[in-house]
Each structure stands twice: as C-alpha cells, then as structure tokens.
Here is the input.
Amino acid sequence: MLKVAIIGAGGYVGGELLRILAQHPDVGEWIATSRSKAGTPIAATHPALAPLTGATFSGDDPGVVSRGCDVVFLALEHGESSRMARTLFDARPGAVIDLSADFRTSDPALYRSHYGEHAAPDLLGRFTYALADVLGDRLRGKTALAAPGCFATAAQLALYPLATADLAGPPAMFAITGSSGAGAQPRPTTHHPMRAHNLFAYSVLSHRHEGEILERWRQWTGRSDAAARLMTHSGPFVRGIHLTLYARLRRAAASGEVGRWYRDAFAGRPFVRVLDQPPELTHVVGTNYAQVYAAQSADGIELQVMVAIDNLVKGAGGQAVQAMNLALGLGEERGLRFAGVYPC
Here is the structure.
C-alpha cells in the first residue's frame, strides 16, 4: 500500500486530491499539509470529506513530510513548487507530482514569456509533462511529473488529433471556465454578485496556459512556428470547462473523416469519451472523464471540436492521480472510476 503526501492541501485542488486519494484502493496512508490551516480539521475546510476522515492538517516541513513517501503531490500556488523542489528531491520520495505551472514547460524562454523568471530553471528538464490521456503507458517509471493546467488539458485534447492534419491556419479555441478555477481565495472576479448572470473574457491574447499548449502543439506538429490561440472566459458556474475549437483544412475531409481522427487518437483511452453529439458540461462535473465531439462542414473544409471537462478533476487532481497510477504501473483507472452528480 502506498504512503502519500499532499503538500498545500487547503485549496480546491488539494480537496479534490484528498477526496480521490482517501478512497483509492492502493493508498494505505496519507498526510495533508497546509501552513495556514495547520492543526485544524480537514473537514472544516473540505466539509464533503467529513465522512471520510477526522484528520487534521499538518504544518510540518514539506521535506520532513515527504521522507519515506511513495508519492508527494504539490498543490501549491504557482512559484512555490519551484522554490521547494530541491528540498523535496533531497527527501527522496518515490515520485513528485506537481500541480502548479512551475514545471509544465521545459523551455526556460517559453516559461519566462508567460510566467516570468523561474526559481529553478535547471530542474525544468527533470519533469515529464503528464498529459495522461495522450501519453498513457509512456509515463511508466517517471518520478517527476508536471500535471497539465485545466484549460491546457481541454485545449490539448482538442488539438492532439489534428497534429497531422493539413490546417489552413492556426486553430482558435474559445473556452469558458467556472469560478473554482480561480482558487479558494475570494477575489473580485469570483465574488458571486460579479459572477452570477455574467460572462466575461480575461487574459485576452495572453493566457498563461498558452505556453504549455504551444510547446506540446509544436512537438506534435514538428513545426517550431506552429501557433494556436486560446480565448478564455469566466462563466456563471462553479465547476467545469467547455471549450470549442475552430479550424479550416486546406483539403476537404471526406464525410465523417474528422470524427474518425478523434476516435482513432483516443482509442483505448479510458477517460476520453468521443461522442456522437456535442458534450454538456453537467455530464462531466465531478468526474475524471473528458467528453469530446468533432464535427465538420458539409464541404469538409471547416471543423469544430468541443471538449467538456471538470477543471478540478480531469483538469487537476484526477489527472494527477491518473498519472500516478500510470507512473507506478497500477491500473490506470484505479480510484478514478466514479460518476458525477446529475443534475448539478
């Protein structure tokens, strides 16, 4: 049985990790740390976990907590993971899985352009970008994993099957996220009166997740100048991301051909469901599943792809646990085959 630590477990992502790991059949022991909530009951912060645990948050040093652990999850604010990474590696846990943006790009210049200076640029190449639904068993044996961002997960699931398509130009992706994507700390854009009955764009032409999206897109296409544009919006709901990709082809696709690209790309991937109709956000909320639908115009030139995910599960904690399962050689679906709540 595994011994697991969750560093920075007081936020929404930490709560999702705890919800999954506390019920994971291969996890025998876990510890949750939070500097701001040390000594307080976990259930006071994450009330849904009350039936699962009466434990309190630990305030112990992350290096001490990590010693002897099989897996350490970092659910910290961006910038914090890179500052403590060396300490964690010195503690020699079996694997480190970071859910922040600190190690999602291997190119220091690309990181700098989206996030600023990196606290440990020499460690960028040590981490494997853990897009579990694309890499699958190629994550086996990896000991330092960077979990993709939530928007980036939805975007890359839409982009991946198009890597060899002859596109007429960069694809554009319009995406809407719920308020939980902004974290547990209240701010003007997540305050209920600002969010309810409202829709607004943010990070216009400069969303940070474009860095990791572009790095993968360029690798997949084999073109260092390959581009894609992400247009992000905040919606009046708590959980989930609904993304729509639009692109044009240079050569007309045969009838049904675009849909086949997606079915072939994700064949055998247990958490990607390629549908025959557009996905609905409420059908994935609370789950580790991504729902995808690909359509093409009557003349075969235009294509539109829709992806729906839960930003805290598939876009964060669930995908991180999926990556853990793959890295350790466990069944990929262990601890993750749970349904959502409908209606929600």
Remarks:
- The mean pLDDT is 94.
- The CA atoms of residues 24 and 334 lie 7 Å apart.
